[in-house]
Amino acid sequence: MNRLAGKVALITGAGRGIGAAIALAFAREGAAVVLAELNLETARQTAQRIESETGARVLAVETDVTQAASVRQAVSEAEQAFGAPDVLVNNAGINVFCDPLTMTDDDWRRCFAVDLDGVWNGCRAVLPGMVERGSGSIVNIASTHAFKIIPGCFPYPVAKHGVIGLTRALGIEYAPRNVRVNAIAPGYIETQLTHDWWNEQADPAAAQQATLALQPMKRIGRPEEVAMTAVFLASDEAPFINATCITVDGGRSALYHD
């Protein structure tokens, strides 16, 4: 299929997990893809796999989303290789779960540097070009933590609430220039981070089963299910969807109680 044919997409945190799935889905839909990833070796391995599977044009770029200059450099390298990005997916993120009163200042700063500042750094790097061209799509990967609170996860949900606010504000600000800014809120998705969390528990198998039991569909999501939502938002099939968030959680957040 060619739903993104001719488009250039830059995806942060694209070395593995949801980001890698988005990069692969975009490549399959005809986009030239830039994997902006802190771990360059991981990005290169993923880029090689995507190129081999799809034949798409793929570039891996070492990027630290907490540093505005690093993100600007990634955009510059994308422009030199393929042209100006038509699509940005702000996917890079980290889990920082603390007790509020024992959390360190470094924990707070680390969470916001990646999960909120990193999103803004990406937006700020691509928006001038998108505004000038009068077109563009930004997709921010938020979380169901952006509107549901799980005790023990502070300050992660605070940052993700900020991502939704940023998405709405920028979407409205640049709507007259035909630049759309949307978000996706994944619930439980089967990534390495999820498996790592299960494996940290006293009984990993029981922890996994407890998670699955909470889900209305009795399973958790797959990275490619988030990826295809990103394809839709990035494509010309969603021209009037702006400043909003699509939840991908199998209905979990709709439950009043278990």
Structure commentary:
- The chain is of the alpha/beta class and 258 residues long.
- The protein has a single domain, classed as NAD(P)-binding Rossmann-like Domain (Rossmann fold), CATH 3.40.50.720.
- 46% of the residues lie in helices and 16% in strands.
- The chain contains 9 helices and 9 strands.
- It has helices at residues 17-28, 40-54, 68-81, 105-115, 117-133, 156-174, 192-200, 204-213, 223-234; strands at 8-12, 32-37, 58-62, 87-90, 97-98, 136-141, 154-155, 179-186, 245-248.
- The strands form 2 sheets. A 7-stranded parallel sheet has the order 3-2-1-4-6-8-9, sandwiched between helices. Strands 5-7 form a two-stranded antiparallel sheet.
- Helix 3 crosses helix 5 (117-133).
- It is globular.
- GO terms for molecular function: oxidoreductase activity, acting on the CH-OH group of donors, NAD or NADP as acceptor.
- This is NAD(P)-dependent dehydrogenase, short-chain alcohol dehydrogenase family.
- Belongs to the short-chain dehydrogenases/reductases (SDR) family.
